[in-house]
Amino acid sequence: MPLDLTAPAAEIARLADGVRDDQLTDPTPCTETDVAGMLAHVIGLSIGFRDGAAKISGPTTSTPPGPMPLPEDWRAQLPKATVELAAAWQDPVAWEGETTVGGVTMPAPTTAGFANDELVVHGWDLAVATGQPYEVAEENLQAAWQLVSNFPDDPDARAGLFGPRVPIADDAPLLDRLLAYAGRDPGWKP
Asked: What is the pLDDT of residues 102-127, one digit of tens each?
């Protein structure tokens, strides 16, 4: 069975619901991105990966990710977008052939892997930036680790996707290893 994105989508929506208005300008582990920027990014990526699953060709799938303003109704948009993202990848057709997201065309299962990784890593970003507990489903954590650990540690290949790997012990918890390989400091604090 293809990877189910329901759990990380629900977790990131739960975390967004716990964000206070006074936290929107707080920093996140994603350098140069505050909480508002992270929330806007999650809305945009959710729409892009949803439309990618549906094989829609247009601005939501062909435009590379970039900064965008946080919509005023983000508290309604974000949970809707993440639920739609997860639902779109429930369709077996979504996993067939190739699809385009962020202007990049890849095999559909690889694209779904990136969607999962975005939800898992950015969920952690939001949790630590806003002081909330974070839980990730084991299958989604394992899938994100498979993607990130097999990605070359080459700055050109990682540009726009991951930061440089952060040194970490081989026996560190899997979430910490995933974060370090994605370019995050697992011990980051606001």
From this structure: 999 999 999 999 999 999 999 999 99
2: its two tokens:
């293809």
Question: What is the residue extent of each domain of the chain?
Answer: 6-137
3-state secondary structure the chain: CCCCCHHHHHHHHHHHHCCCHHHCCCECCCCCCEHHHHHHHHHHHHHHHHHHHCCCCCHHHHCCCCCCCCCCCHHHHHHHHHHHHHHHCCCHHHHCCEEEECCEEEEHHHHHHHHHHHHHHHHHHHHHHHCCCCCCCHHHHHHHHHHHHCCCCCHHHHCCCCCCCCCCCCCCCHHHHHHHHCCCCCCCCC
CA quadruple 101, 183, 15, 146: dihedral sign: positive
pTM of the entire predicted model = 0.94
Superfamily of structural domain 6-137: dinb family like domain (1.20.120.450)
Total residue count of the chain as it appears in this document: 190
168 and 180 Cβ atoms separated by less than 8 Å: yes
Higher pLDDT, 151 or 110: 110
In this structure, which long-range contacts are made by residues 154-159, counting pairs with CB atoms below 8 Å and at least 24 apart in sequence? 158/183
